[in-house]
Amino acid sequence: MRTEQVLAAIERERERHERELVELLRIPSVSTEPERAQQVRRAAEWVRRALADAGCQARLVETARHPIVYAERPAPSGRPTVLVYGHYDVQPADPERDGWSRPPFEPVIAGGNIYARGASDDKGQMLAWVHAARAWHQAAGGPPVGLKFVIEGEEEIGSPNLGPWIAAHRDLLAADVVAISDMDQFAPGMPALTYGLRGLLYVELRVYGPAEDLHSGIYGGAVMNPATALCRVLGRLHDERGRVAVDGFYDEVRPLEPWEREMFAALPHDDARYAAELGVPALVGEEGYSTLERVWARPTLEVNGLFGGFQGPGAKTVLPGYAGAKLSMRLVPDQDPAKVYAGLRRTIERLMPPGVRWDLGAPGPGATASGAARRAPLAQSPEAAPAVLLERSSPFAAAAARAIAAGFGREPVWVRSGGTIPVVLLFKQHLGLDAVLMGYGLPDDNKHGPDEKLCLEDFHRGCRTSALFFAEVARAAGARAG
Amino acid sequence: MRTEQVLAAIERERERHERELVELLRIPSVSTEPERAQQVRRAAEWVRRALADAGCQARLVETARHPIVYAERPAPSGRPTVLVYGHYDVQPADPERDGWSRPPFEPVIAGGNIYARGASDDKGQMLAWVHAARAWHQAAGGPPVGLKFVIEGEEEIGSPNLGPWIAAHRDLLAADVVAISDMDQFAPGMPALTYGLRGLLYVELRVYGPAEDLHSGIYGGAVMNPATALCRVLGRLHDERGRVAVDGFYDEVRPLEPWEREMFAALPHDDARYAAELGVPALVGEEGYSTLERVWARPTLEVNGLFGGFQGPGAKTVLPGYAGAKLSMRLVPDQDPAKVYAGLRRTIERLMPPGVRWDLGAPGPGATASGAARRAPLAQSPEAAPAVLLERSSPFAAAAARAIAAGFGREPVWVRSGGTIPVVLLFKQHLGLDAVLMGYGLPDDNKHGPDEKLCLEDFHRGCRTSALFFAEVARAAGARAG
């Protein structure tokens, strides 16, 4: 009943919602550009006012660079609290270099889309949650759940100050679930619930041969070439079936469940078209799994960078003194990054030929660093993040699915992402919270490119969905209590 | 009898020979430094006068950069002609940066050595041949052989103008053998005859994956990583016994003969000390061969450069669009570079995993070239040079061995070099001539480093040896004629 009133209010306020989106998009809050720090702050202030207008206690939290907008509204007695995460900063947009059709900070509505930097990433998606909160506030005296908003201004520069702040404010941020809209639907007309993200283990492998580069004629044949040794190892980290040949790599991998394989198989996906888009002659990967299964739910090991010896034009007959590679593993539930790291170390130990020294650790100072820097031991604390998975049995996942179904008028598909969203891990690790990932964008929104857009109808559906999510969370909690 | 007179003259002229060496070493004929072009010419003129003084018709041959000194003296009727090659240009010498103990162009004699840039490489060694010619001219009315001198001024910059000139002057340069002293004895008191050089085949292998670098989270698992594919191939180009696993690679390799293995084994060589000097934990190479056998007389394949993806400091989760390697093979008799190249191509074809495109050819424009340049096809004409070997049965080899034995008072050891001396190939390919390589230097002469030196007594022994070589070549020819 109250939900109906809220949805009606959202319907009535379509124009205002669009107008306010345009307002926010006009502020060039490019977090990486120092000369725009004041614009970033203007956007923070704009969001703070909007959240205050939605009945929250809202304030700016100062950090070493751009402020976090924090807002809260207490939960009705016995009700759960939803923590909404989003960001008000945007990627740079260079109209000259990147080929924008229109000035990136002068929003234009055309063909049902709104075009501007930040439209999809993340101002439009984030604002859907602010508008939902205001609709509840104005049409029903407040939502049936407690609300906390953490809207940061440094997402596009790696969120350097968010983690420490979250870690230092566990009590303040206590909640039941995190809601994030900073991703995509599967396709137009196919809303999605992203229930899994892969984790990451990023390392560097260095192989040291002779103290100096040697003449490959005079010395070739006397010593192990470190570039050869590196390739020997890296070339054996996958088997003939495309599986990662690291000791114990799959020991704790949770198999895909039948419903997942069915769900992914039912999604429209064309391998040939995908290969053509990427410019590869064929898709290749772990045998026995579809492309979507491989990128979303199977662990991988990729060489991200490779270096050693002479890289200039033409020929130089050098036997390099060292060679190295940057490697990353995408992890899936229930792989433990520390165990994978230990397995990788054992595997390298086994595969590395004699006659060289090697080091494995956190990514180092780069190929062009000085000899001393290159030969300094790598830190034994590589970047590592476990995968995250929202269990299908989670009441919050069910609440999100129902909200999306009602808000978008279509059951969501359950998808995963092959990437890693660091903030999801921050909330999990520091606050113990699961996140529901409800993408209101589309894959062709061109988020970091020119002519970024957001489908306006999806923006309005997002407002409805966010409002419905508050009601569904409250209902789920009530059902459990009852 | 005449030879005795010539040797006596050389003994008498020791002081003059040293004085003239000092004179020549005072001229900073650094061929790579444009501001020293006049000094380079001064050195050429100095050498021309010295050769005229030795009874030769001597002149400067102009080239696009530094002149070649060419001199000749006709052979006595029915006698063979020796073509002496050397160079009067020197490496740069930066006293500040490189840490010279004394100004590099102010020669100093100390502890039996003469210290100056070019002392060993190649002014001192080359001058021994000029002095030998003059001694024959002055003490015996001329040598018992015809002489041709080709003393270039561009050796240290890759001899860009020598090859075309030789190719265009085959009649002028017709001779019976080439003599070169631009290398080392095996050790102090161990004069050497270098009878073999390895050849070279230098190529680049490029592996192309997606059209652009991809995000390794979003796409990792969907496509073959070109860096992984490259390592897979490169890591399989050697087998477990350290042999090169390229199709047909050893088919035409001439085995080491028993006398060679005995000769090399008898040489003083300490693997542990050699490993320590190079800074490697152990020496590694083809099983069943000693270190000297491996670097001198066995073919190798080395990765000279390796590149792809992100090489900077820290981490970047990129799935690279391409990866590449520069590879060189050192060839031995009787490998044919064209057949080795074809075998390498077949091997790569067999080892390369699906899902990538690749190219093999002459070394390309380098890792940092533009995308278009990087994706242009590699030229199908890689740098290739066969190995050279002076047969032990060659009368010129025997003549050189006898000359060294008499000149140095000790039988030479027969050694090979793992490197490639391009001018030796020029004379072989254009004139059909074998070269005798008679090193008067020592391995610790620091030829391209600070405080370059030449042992003065070896310089005098070199003068004697060169003079004796003329007599031995004449005697060998007479023996054949008789």
Detailed description of the structure:
The structure is a homodimer of 482-residue chains. Chain A has two domains: 291 residues, 3-Layer(aba) Sandwich (Aminopeptidase), CATH 3.40.630; 141 residues, Alpha-Beta Plaits (2-Layer Sandwich). Chain A contains 15 helices and 19 strands. The radius of gyration of chain A is 25 Å and the shape is globular. The relative contact order of chain A is 0.18. The mean pLDDT of chain A is 95. At the A-B interface, strand 10, helix 7, helix 9, helix 10 and strand 11 of A face strand 10, helix 7, helix 9, helix 10 and strand 11 of B.
> What shape does the CA trace of chain A take?
globular
Average pLDDT across residues of chain A? 95
How many discrete domains of chain A? 2
Greatest interface and its participating residue counts = A-B, 87 and 87 residues
At the fourth level of CATH, the homologous superfamily of the largest domain in chain A is Zn peptidases
The name of the CATH topology of the largest domain in chain A is: Aminopeptidase
